[in-house]
Specification:
This protein is of the alpha/beta class and 562 residues long. Among the domains are: 4-17 and 124-281, HUPs (Rossmann fold, 3-Layer(aba) Sandwich), CATH 3.40.50.620; 377-441, no CATH class; 444-559, Arc Repressor Mutant, subunit A (Orthogonal Bundle), CATH 1.10.10.350. It contains 24 helices and 18 strands. β15 and β16 (460-462) form a beta hairpin. The termini are far apart. Bound molecules: glutamic acid (GLU). Residues 41-43, 75, 239, 253 line the site of glutamic acid (GLU).
Amino acid sequence: MADYKDLAELIFPNITETLEDLEKKYPVRNLPEGAMVTRFAPSPTGFLHTGSLFTSLVSARFAKQSGGVFYIRLEDTDTKREIEGSGESLVKQLAVFDVIPDEGYISDSKEVGAYGPYKQSDRSSIYDTVIKYLISIGRAYPCFATQEELAELRKSQEANKEIPGYYGKYAIYRDYPVDKAIERIKNGDKYIIRFKSMGDHNNKVSFHDEIRGDLELTQNDQDIVIRKGDGLPTYHFAHLCDDHFMHTTVVTRGEEWLPSLPIHLELFDTMGFERPKYAHFPVIMKVENGNRRKLSKRKDSEAATSYFLEKGYPKYGFIEYLLTIANSNYEEWRNANLDKSPYDFMLSFEKMSLDGALFDLEKVESISKERMAYRKASDLCEEVLEWANEYDKEFAAKINANKKFFTEILNIEREKDKPRKDYAKYSDIYPIISFFYDDVYDSLDKDNLDFTVQVNKQETKTVDSEAIKGFLNDYMASYNLDVTEEEWFNNLKATAEKYKFTGDRKAYKANPNDYNGQVGDAAGFLRICLACRKNTPNIYYVQKILGKEKVFARINTILAKI
Ligand code: GLU
């Protein structure tokens, strides 16, 4: 009579390596005590999800801060969902956000490290070695169930109100005689391979999650598929083999994997492999109409990291945002350590939120604004240019034409104690400063300029054009920018007051009709002349950068329109 060993031999005649061979080939890593080995294991399905960036960034930090290893493994066993070339592109996208593996898959023709191959489709012989062993000890078996048989199972389970799936008495090929199985295989019948579970769904399995603490979950009793019809392993089985032989110490993955953990624990225990630690990361959520839901690639453009790159969020701002959602104490630490690198922060599993990290674009903006404000103008110039070269050619051309000019513009109220926080992303810059460029200025609408001022909270009035003209002409007559900002402003104020633009807020409030407006209104007209709008960066510096000649030319252009 044939036995399990014969069956294993029949299915895998070419597998000659043993488990011991594999253990020798992939020895325990020589790392200091406490060093974590973590990984990011993306499927090559097209794009880098914001949630995946979060998971990989944090996993990489845990490895780095503990002196361990962070590696990338490409999980390409779902051939239907695979998008050509996207594995490589994922690695590149990760690198943009500083997530650089110490080891692993780099591209289809390149990998680094001694624990490979790092692409699952290249690891068949490893999976098959383990499966061959499991069959030989009677803990895995070929299953010949047809679609019809499986549908039949489902139907009777529904009718009996029983747990669905392939388990216990419903696992129809679980105790199929070895001789018969051998005959059918020889006959060329189609089959897949299932794991033979010894679990019981009335029992619990306990384990400790690094983030969630001690948990009790229902034991697995399903005879899950471990090798599909195409010869490739399922996620569960690949996880067992890969994380064991690559010596992952902490499996950091999304909480959507928590329900299948009992399967994984049973697999590790059956093989006698040491269980890795697990940290199930919170899923990134979004609030919509008061309800929380998963950040979805179909509904939310911010679910793809490319969104942030296109919009021009500085990567250092976005990375820090992700660190704030990773650890609740990050922000406090950051504010107390502005001179340090974000990577000096020690992440901890204990400080990770449990109930889904909330994605907040406003927070991304405010952190980015904060960080960008402290960039040196020359550094910022390079960053903006790199972005504009890719996403805004017109802007890039302007910068390239005169980098010094653009850097001066960027430097308005920068490189000082309390820099201005105008820009949250590179794409915010050009709309605010494009008026500096003559061709843009020339193309601005000058026939519908707003010469009204606020009388009180509700009312506005149009200012007498003679007063505006008088003020602007007088301003040019007494033009002097070779003084401090404060002196310049005092001079402007004196000129404005001559034309009944008062510096006395209270007096204006009491009797607005006695005045044409306030000093700020007069300064607003100057802004209109220079930029065709009332909001501009600090007008003292705007004039310094434009130079007297252009300032006068622009004032005269507008005077002709009044
Ligand atoms: N390939 C799996 C995924 O795309 C990886 C999960 C894990 O990290 O184990 O979600």
